[in-house]
Write a structure and sequence with these properties.
The structure holds two protein chains of two kinds. By secondary structure, chain A is α+β, with helices and mostly antiparallel strands. Helices cover 67% and strands 7% of the residues of chain A. In chain A, helix 1 packs across helix 2 and helix 11 runs antiparallel to helix 12. Chain A is globular and about 80 Å long. Chain B is mainly alpha-helical. Chain B folds into three domains: 66 residues, no CATH class; 209 residues, MetI-like fold (Orthogonal Bundle), CATH 1.10.3720; 121 residues, no CATH class. Chain B is extended and about 115 Å long. The chains are: A alpha+beta, B mainly alpha.
Amino acid sequence: MSTEARNPPPQIALKIRRLLGGKAGWNGVAIQFAFAAILGWIGYEIVSNARANLENQHIAAGFGFLRNNAGFDVNQTLISYTGSDTFLRVFMVGLLNTLVVSVVGIIFATLIGFIVALCRLSPNWLLSRVGEIYIEIIRNLPVLFQILFWYLAVLAALPNPRQSISLLGIAFISNRGLVIPSPIGGSGLQPFLAMLALGVVASLALRFYARRALFQEGRMIRIWPTVLGMLVGLPLATMLVFGLPFTFELPQLKGFNFAGGSRIIPEFVALTLALSTYTAAFIAEIVRAGILSVHKGQMEAGASLGLSRGATLRLVVVPQAMRVIVPPLTNQYLNLTKNSSLAVAIGYPDLVSVFAGTSLSQTGQAIEIIAMTMGIYLLISLLTSAIMSVYGWRVSRSLGA
Amino acid sequence: MSDIASSSFVRKDLLTERPAPVKTTGFVGLMRTRLFNSPTNILLTIVGVLLLWFTIIPSVRFLMVDAVWSGKDRAACLTENAGFAVGACWPYIQAKLPQLIYGFYPEAERWRVDLTFILAVALLVPLLVPRLPAKGINASLFFFAFPVVAFFLLHGGGIKGFGLSWTAGVLELFDDSIIGAGQAVLGVGKTSAVAPLLWVVGNLILLVGVAISWVILPLTWLRDQIQGTGQPVWGDFAVTTVIVSLIAFSLGGGLRTGWRALASSIAAFIAIAIVIKLMGLDRGGLPVVTTNLWGGLLVTLVVSVTGIVTSLPIGIALALGRRSTIPLIRIFSIAFIEFWRGVPLITVLFFATYMLPLFFPGNFTVDGLVRALIGIALFTGAYQAENVRGGLAAIPRGQGEAAAALGLSWWKTTSLIVLPQALRHVIPNLVNSFISLFKDTSLVSIVALFDLLGSLRASFSDPKWSTPSTAFTGFAFAGIIYFIFCFGMSRYSLFVEHRLNAHRRN
């Protein structure tokens, strides 16, 4: 005769207490209700005041205004836009401008940051001092100060288009911005792109195969000549067969300004310069800290295994340093994206400038517009932190294994 | 014996001296080991020298050698008049200096700004030097008394009542709002499907409102009596002193141990009375200077000091909330922190400038500077919360458990055991946040406040001083000011970090 294990008593009161008050017991329940009441009261005050104020100002709440005509021009648009487009279109234009300046800034910031970090780590005393001076000066000045400095002082001091500074005769810098040759698609464009894509896919597949061969059978396959051939040779061959994929239209000085080529507005140049040099100083410190965080013994262990210095760096030191570098680096990328909103100070048409600035002053829909603007930035940063937590989970898993 | 002597080798003369080891210290050693020890390093050194040559030399030439040091207007700084390629135009800074420091603050009243600066320095320096005593009094003076005094000094104006009247006023406002909410619910209830429920809820809220109005009746009655006498400020002050001192006396332990609390409370009120008398707050105070006249470095410092003072309590509260065991408070804190940390400061300032006024009652206008300050306090508070949370996480659980074993309440555990240790841990991080706050104050120039950067930008448009080098001169000057403040703070943070890690030094 076997006795069944008795079910534990239900303890309903305990469960309710847990549900309502967490671990803090009945005290917690009371505090929670008081807190909810206060929040509710504040929420009620805000809503009722906002409703009364909007009624006084004769503003209709809601997102209906997004379908109205904007009626103002934007001086840099990635998608087609005219003054007769809607506010929703303005929002998209601004968002794309924000994203493009952020991406370009991130690329340059990473480049400059790694170079400065290498200077800082260099055994050469003078070069590491130069890196240190750069970092100290840049980090101790406000980023808005630097944006205005580049825009109001440096770019404004450049000559007008007629006396513009020529870079090898193909690009010109003047106080109207940077003029560069613009590519124009030719007859061979589609086969060229197709072959390029094919080359990239094939190289990735080859790399995957080579790594498997190395890890599972211990065979080393040298893939770089093949990859080079596929990435450079294939498109070159198509170019020979089908003709040039695109030609460049060179800018020409006509009258007081340039014709042809594509013009990058000075606001964009100033913003990219300031954001990338500013963020680079922070990235340099992150990279330096990451590389210094790898213990000296790792390098020595690599050497004792007979790996060359380059191979030790590539296979032992850098992967461990990346673990330390990547999370704060992403944080800096996010900061750069958020700082790009300072574009409003110099009139670069980013999201804040055209949407929270011009559109807000035209429509007066403060609540909707600011909520949308904040929401977009919040979305970007939440996405980034979600990706980072996945990365952290993978790192901790690989460490545990 | 002789056999051994003949077979063994005995040196008869001294060895020649070995050459001295290669010097690795001093300038020559530095050159040999860190600059010219290999061909690559020689190349890098040359690159470094070239970099310095093309940055330092032109800057020094611009700031010193080619600079113009005196003049009355732009004519002095033009190349045609000076006879050489003009660098910095310092007379422009001399002419604009008052604007860059005080903005449009009336010239006759500028002593008030100077006095505030002096007070701030006098309170801040002893707080920052670790060896000086009386940190508690000093900190409370800087964080509580100084902001109030600075407000009445900078803004001017007087007071019409004191603690009792203000408390009564706030409670009355609160009660009115509750009664209003109850009536609104009743109004909705007439047409709604869940009318009986809303009727009950509305009447319940009304009941609470009426009950509160009965509870605060003695307070409002006393307030009306005091306002009726000829001396509202001093009458109110006396009543408040008595009430607060009695509360401090009884909370301090009554007849047994409360005397100390009573004495310090009375001393504090005497100090307050002296300040009120000195500044004549009961007779209208100093002439009012509205905040739209403030500008320059004054606004930069006001915004950053207010941000520092207000963000810390917000940050501590949010950090404790985030670690709370009560679900709603924890969720609220997490959402609040992540929201403000996820958006750029400039959108927060737009929010504070355009959206916040809609949330207040229509007859209630908020000053532009105060709006920006609210935005900055919320924004920085969220960042400080994460700093403080880092410190709280660094305190071993055993500390809290030991306090619980001694029978201390949550409040006592937190305020006496955990927080002091946690805050000490994160002083460097807090100072780093203050540095970024100080740099971020420049953003208020975008929402039409003239801080240092805003005043600088405004001064560029003055045709009297428009020369090719004006912008560079202005940026050089402002840059030096920003650099001194930020670099000073970062060195201080390093110093504190070094001191805190003294036990880890090897």
